[in-house]
Amino acid sequence: MKKIIQTEKAPAPIGPYNQAVLSGNTLYTSGQIAIDPTTGKLNLGNSIGEETTLVMENMKAVLEAAEMTFENVVKTSIFISDMHNFADINEVYAQYFDEATAPARETVEVANLPKFVNVEISMIAIK
Question: Which InterPro entries does the entry mention (predicted)?
Answer without folding.
Answer: RidA, RutC-like_sf, YjgF/YER057c/UK114
